[in-house]
Amino acid sequence: MEEIQHKYVDVRGLKLHVAEIGTGPVVVFLHGFPEIWYSWRHQMVAAAKSGFRAIAPDYRGYGLSEQPAEPEKATFRDLVFLVGKDLGARPVYHFALLHPDRVSGVITLGVPFLLTGPEAFPSDQLPKGFYMLRWQANSSFEESRFSGGYLHFQRFHLAHTLLQEPGRAEKDFGRFDIKTVLKNIYILFSGSDLPAAREDQEIMDLVDPSTPLPPWFTEEDLDIYAALYEKSGFRTPLQVPYRAWLEDYGVTELKVDAPALLIMGEKDYALKFGNLAEYISGGVVKQYVPNLEVTYLPEGSHFVQEQFPDQVNSLILAFLNKHK
């Protein structure tokens, strides 16, 4: 990846790491979790070769970017860009809602436009040991439930209702080195089943230590991820997306008219999240994003851009060239 350049930009007093390559119309790529700018390496090079300037930041508190002063208060409203995967879909669509005149197209992978807030979270359709529920309660949860305002109260209410233990994710992750945590999450999220544990079991324990990495994700890739997360840790990544998930968009007009593309792997476990599969295939999502195209990759997992880079590159470039 020697062609990709790296620099730091000052944003609200924090130095954010940004990777970029190429010249031309700008395409900004937003990673998911447990990813980092590096997850877009294949797409960035392809976009640059096709006449675009590809930019991929590390979010605040991720990888080489500086930590916010109070990670537990970080929210989705701090992230605004164009192409998003997983949690990156939230800031992409939030930006499109707030600044429709500045968006010529939206691409998301693994996650479509979703309604937000506690009433939109399908807790009654999820197993109690589902990883997102386990990771939503933090170690300072009891102290913040009343002092942090209504949003903190909502988080507390959800976690309390589902009997989630504050700080359980930190304790779970803390039993292993960062490389092992990332390996386990990549293996879990590459499957087609919702990652959920028994009450007497932790999420990390769902992975047998002898399980190999997916064939498209090398030990070298894992080493690069681990080196980046060694710097940032998981404090902010657990806050955003998981502990900020109940936050709403803060707008009343929930409609994005810009051209949009959703790329989903047919074996992505996310399709079993509540009624997400029907929400997409039944066209409900088009009530909010009427100009949405949906493309499925038959063997695709949650990491389609790394699993099938050539196919994803072709889809992204075709969309960009059509709407530039």
TrEMBL record:
Lineage: Eukaryota, Viridiplantae, Streptophyta, Embryophyta, Tracheophyta
Protein's name in the database: AB hydrolase-1 domain-containing protein
Source species, domain of life: Eukaryota
InterPro entries: AB_hydrolase_1, AB_hydrolase_fold, Epox_hydrolase-like
Pfam family, one: Abhydrolase_1
Coiled coil start-end: none
UniProt keyword annotations, A-Z: Hydrolase
Protein family (similarity comment): Belongs to the AB hydrolase superfamily. Epoxide hydrolase family.
Domain AB hydrolase-1, first and last residues per copy: 25-307
UniProt-listed Gene3D superfamilies: alpha/beta hydrolase
GO MF assignments: hydrolase activity
